[in-house]
Write a structure and sequence with these properties.
By secondary structure, the chain is of the alpha+beta class. The radius of gyration is 34 Å and the shape is elongated. About 4% of the residues have low confidence. The strands form six sheets. It has a four-stranded mixed sheet with strand order 10-11-15-14. The protein has a three-stranded mixed sheet with strand order 1-9-8. Strands 2-7 form a two-stranded antiparallel ribbon.
């Protein structure tokens, strides 16, 4: 860009290029990265203070800006209008939020680890601590994550000067906009350092795979499929001194031959004879604590539901418990003895 280009020329060049590479319009490989580069270039050149830093110091003058620093004062709605560009008109919640806001200063955070954990209905009811085992990449204790043999230190990469990134620049839009493209340094693979004597334990990676055993606190009544977060128990950061990721544990209720779960309620099927349905009966049914006596009223119909209040699971973060619901099935005999058939015939005659 010529140093005397005015705001309108910068805006027009940006709009033309941004529309060309907008991810909603251009599905070609690399279009999204080009769009991000163009947007960052405009954010710098359209702001007098940022542009002065760039003119005086080049890319080093603007390398530390966050997404909020770059785009917070730009009215993209004024540039693009409605345009149907899926939220381009504002940083909050729109495309720019998706592309840029996730950036964070400092070393990169390690990846999160996700595992599944199955607990019995009794464990759901009482809560408490349960042990889980999982594998993760942890900081190598022999070298404290540096990757260098004990007694030695990593050396600052001569190619990227410790940044882990290589920056290239080019002109776009008839020379009106400089495009900055940053890639991982090939000499140090983005670490910013090179290692002359790699650690014998981790091979210079600074990380080792480790089996972890961890106590997870299960709250009483935890809902099926709920995810519990354990901060700092994910993968180690790929950069020295970076924070580890987090552990996410999805809790599932184990299958139970006695009950099926529906929130805090438990369901169970009980099959009774026609005689018990007609005359009534006393059943003994299991609960999570102990067996319970249940009265089946005379004249109970097929698929009737009997409710045992408070015999289900604790309500998550609420008072009280769910219920145990018994769905009544009635067994119709398929084979009758001569005596049984005679009795049913007499019942039918009485009904007539």
């Amino acid at each position: 860009m010529s140093r005397d280009a005015d705001a309108k020329a910068i805006k027009d060049a940006f709009r033309t290029l941004a529309l060309k590479y907008h991810p909603d319009r251009n599905k070609a490989a690399g279009a999204e990265e080009r769009f991000k580069e163009i947007a960052e270039a405009y954010a710098v050149l359209s702001d007098p203070a940022k542009r002065a830093e760039y003119d005086n110091r080049g890319f080093a003058g603007v390398s530390g800006f966050s997404a909020e620093d770059l785009f917070g004062g730009i009215d993209f709605g004024d540039i693009f209008g409605s345009g149907g560009l899926g939220g381009i008109g504002g940083i909050g919640g729109g495309l720019f939020d998706q592309l840029f806001r996730h950036r964070r200063p400092g070393p990169a955070k390690g990846q999160d680890v996700e595992i599944a954990m199955t607990v019995s209905l009794e464990q759901v009811a009482r809560g408490g601590e349960e042990q889980v085992r999982f594998m993760r990449q942890a900081v190598c204790e022999a070298c404290n994550g540096s990757g260098a043999e004990k007694g030695t230190r990593p050396v600052t990469c001569a190619t990227c000067h410790g940044t882990g990134r290589i920056t290239h620049a080019r002109r776009e839009g008839g020379g009106n906009i400089y495009i900055q493209q940053t890639t991982i340094c090939p000499a140090c693979s983005g670490r910013g350092v090179t290692i002359e004597k790699p650690c014998k334990i981790c091979g210079g990676l600074g990380q080792v795979e480790r089996a972890e055993s961890l106590g997870i606190t299960i709250p009483p009544g935890i809902e099926d499929g709920m995810v519990l977060k354990v901060a700092g128990k994910g993968e180690a950061s790929p950069e020295i001194g970076g924070p580890p990721g987090d552990l996410f544990v999805m809790v599932r209720s184990a299958a139970d031959a006695r009950f099926s779960r529906s929130g805090a309620d438990l369901w169970r099927e009980e099959t009774i004879s026609i005689t018990d349905a007609v005359l009534g009966a006393l059943l003994t049914v299991p609960t999570l604590e102990a067996d319970a006596a249940v009265t089946v009223p005379a004249g109970t119909q097929p698929d009737a539901v009997l409710r045992l209040r408070g015999k289900g699971l604790p309500r998550f973060r609420e008072k009280g418990r769910g219920d145990l619901l018994l769905r009544i099935r009635i067994h119709v005999p398929e084979h009758l003895s001569a005596k049984e058939r005679d009795l049913y015939d007499k019942l039918r005659e009485m009904g007539d």
